Amino acid sequence: MRQVRYVVLYESGPDVLELAPVHMAAHTTHYEDFAARGLLVAIGTFEQPEVNGSMCVLTTREAAEEFAAADPFVVHGVVRSYRVLAWTNVLA
Q1: Fewest beta carbons less than 10 Å away: which of 8, 36, 49, 55?
Q2: What would the 3-class secondary structure string for the chain be?
Q3: Whole-structure pTM over 0.85, yes or no?
Q4: CA nearest 12: which of 77, 84, 85?
Q5: In this structure, is the dihedral angle defined by the CA atoms of residues 32, 34, 35 and 40, taken in order, positive or negative?
Q6: Strand 54-58's sheet: what is its strand order?
Q7: What does the pLDDT average to over 10-31?
Q8: Three-point CA angle 61, 8, 92, nearest 5°
Q9: Residue 34 and residue 63 in contact, taking contact as beta carbons nearer than 8 Å
């Protein structure tokens, strides 16, 4: 059975290495809340996140949009931009 999830792709801001540690506690609280509500199923960085960014996977488009818009990393410029894409997990 195919399962649709929503991936948020983050492009790192120019000061990601300096700003991420400053806002990490708030970012962690933010993603832990979404995970506890069963909306966030995966989150993490790619290798060399300053170049390749990061991503997270959420259960609905609404949750993905809400997550990204309120994420302290987005609000404080750790993330330059983001986009939300529907993703079909064909193995689910």
Answers
A1: 36
A2: CCEEEEEEEEEECCCHHHHHHHHHHHHHHHHHHHHHCCCEEEEEECCCHHHHCEEEEECCHHHHHHHHHHCHHHHCCCEEEEEEEEEEECCC
A3: yes
A4: 77
A5: negative
A6: 40-45, 54-58, 3-12, 79-89
A7: 97
A8: 70
A9: yes
Q: Are 30 and 75 in contact (CB under 8 A)?
A: no
* Residue 53 near residue 46, CB atoms below 8 Å: yes
pLDDT range class, residue 92, cuts 50, 70, 90:
confident
Give helix 61-70 / helix 16-36 axis angle, nearest 10°: 140
Partners of residue 8 on adjacent β-strands: 56, 84
